[in-house]
Amino acid sequence: MKSLSLHFTVLVFCCLMTFHSLAQDPPVVHRNFIGFTLTELPFLDFRLSYERRLTPIHALTFSVGFKPAYKSYADATQVNLGQNTTAWCYRNTANWLYFSAGYRFYFGRKKTVYTSGELFYKYMWANEIIYSFGLQNTETIRNQYELRSMSTNLAGLNLLIGKRVTIRFSNYIHMGLDIYAGLSLRCKFINTTIYSSYIATHYHDEGIGVVSLPLSENSNVTYQTMFQGSPQFGINLFFSWK
Question: pTM for the full model?
Answer without folding.
Answer: 0.77
